[in-house]
């Protein structure tokens, strides 16, 4: 990174990732899968303006996978085993914004776009080259606001939008984009905090993953509309 500018800090990063290989012990007993490697590249800038009341950060990223480890469903869909995709790539852009226009008020927003695809991946006669990587949303959006009153009362709300996600390697099963809203109101002190919170306020129905069993698709439901109280004590 370079800190020679007054308001902007550009940076670049390169890292190497590794996940160990192993042997399948539930299905395809004794078969092995290779270790997974990644090269991770990122180019971005962190900026601050108006006496640090506005922060804007942006980044471009590129991930190059080799021998990507993937879960493969058995023929009946009742179990999985680990296999390797030859190679895969993920690239995209991220943008974050935080503003404090008034004392106590904070506004936040963020967006990300991702293109994640298999480069070389096949299972028998099925070829998935160019298909989207499963469980990888094509975009995410979020925005929110919080306000802290001088008497210790705190309120906040935020909304997150998650883009389409594919659940299988040939991309024939997917979930459309959806949004989740959360809110929180509470009282904060130096010794303890008390919050009343609500999650998934509009009771949106969605799944966190989906899979076929005997040619019938099932989904794992996401958390429904939820309300609760949280207490934090500092010792």
Furnish the topology, listing elements before pairings.
Layout: E1 8-19, E2 22-23, E3 32-33, E4 36-49, E5 54-73, E6 80-99, E7 105-120, E8 122-123, E9 126-127, E10 139-148, E11 153-162, E12 165-166, E13 174-175, E14 178-188, E15 192-199, E16 207-213, E17 216-221, E18 226-233
Antiparallel strand pairs: 1-4, 2-3, 4-5, 5-6, 6-7, 7-10, 8-9, 10-11, 11-14, 12-13, 14-15, 15-18, 16-17
- How is the main sheet built? 10 strands, antiparallel
Q: Tell me the β content.
A: over 45%
Strand order of the largest sheet: 1-4-5-6-7-10-11-14-15-18
Proportion in helices: under 10%
On the 0 to 100 scale, the average pLDDT is 92
Structural class: mainly beta
Count of separate DSSP helical elements: 0
- The global form is globular
Euclidean distance between termini CA atoms: 37 Å
Q: Give the tally of β-strands.
A: 18
Helix-strand topology string: EEEEEEEEEEEEEEEEEE
Provide the low-confidence segments as ranges.
Answer: none
Q: Please give the radius of gyration in angstroms.
A: 22 Å
Structure explained in plain terms:
This protein is mostly beta strands and 235 residues long. Helices cover 0% and strands 66% of the residues. The protein contains no helices and 18 strands. It has strands at 8-19, 22-23, 32-33, 36-49, 54-73, 80-99, 105-120, 122-123, 126-127, 139-148, 153-162, 165-166, 174-175, 178-188, 192-199, 207-213, 216-221, 226-233. The strands form 5 sheets. A 10-stranded antiparallel sheet has the order 1-4-5-6-7-10-11-14-15-18, with no helix packed on it. The radius of gyration is 22 Å and the shape is globular. The two termini are 37 Å apart. The relative contact order is 0.11. The model has no long low-confidence stretch (mean pLDDT 92).
